[in-house]
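Tutorial, part two.
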Amino acid sequence: MAFDQLMQLRPQEKADKRILIVKAEEQDIHKYGFPLPDGILAQAIGKLDQYQPQVIGLDIFRNVPREPGSAQLAKHFQNNQRLIAVCRVPEARDPNNPGIAPPKAIAAEGVGFADVLLDSDGVLRRHLLFLNPEENSVCTSKNSFSILLALNYLAKKGIQPLQSAEERNLNLDSVVFTPLPYEGRAGGYSNINGEGTQILLNYRAIKDVTQIAKTVTLSQVINSQIKREDVENRIVIVGITDRTAGGDFINTPYGEIPGVLMQAYAVSQILSTVLDRPRRPLLRVWSLEAEIFWIWGWSLVGGVLLWRWRSLFFVLGAVTITTAVMAELCLFLLIQGSWVPLVPSALALIISSGCVAIYQHNESKSA
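Running the prediction step on this input gives:
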């Protein structure tokens, strides 16, 4: 997909220093067992908590107790105001996905859904912010896990969200998160009504896709092999990266990554848009009218090129150079936060050139 190629061509960015990832990798699973016991998670949360993180996100489903240690973990869920847990909303179109409930001991405001929206090719390009689950759902959270982590972090900095129920727009410190429209066409999407409030996911352009943030292992946390400065005032996200032990993996424009890293990218997008100076742009799409005008403009360019210069060799070179310029413009606009159609524009350029060439050929034959 052209969008993915352009995303990969963007200038490199640095890792997000506001986030720490704690990964339960293969060695940790072998050491502590699977499913990870509640006591191990409780111990890790306690170790992290003593270093004063802003918020801790547990990206591990814990709908049923995993002994030993369920009482200790339940105390964290009940008393630790920094802790955010996850659940999964049932998929109405998939009877094999009944959803996953949150931990019983945690308050509703401390739970975010971990659901994602994959495109038809299985790649994640959208960031799901809010949902309206059914009242009888096992997961009733309206807020995504990533938005809860980000909002808790921003609240500590005095930034509170404003949201219009009618417009579905989230406003954070004068930054408006305008969602993709429910009806009609938006970029490569159309008629997404019923799929929640979503925006495009502007992945941080990291050379190594796994290095979105500083990462430590679960064993390092348990063994107190981490530094206070790695945790203090950060968002800490704990998750499993071992595929054989329940770690979910998600396809992105940059390749496959563990779900816990995807959550870090989603959180980073929100923080970077609100807090960075200059602010990192959100990805937006043009209106249908603007896209039509853009494509029509390139079609006109293709026709003019062939009409002005009759040499086939020159025209082929000019079309090639113009297409390259178009791609550079699309990349520049993407960096600035606008996703504009590349492939339709290139096709319009080539087709219009071909049509003019055929017309000129017929004219010359009849002359």
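The mean pLDDT is 92. In part three we will examine how such features are distributed along the chain.
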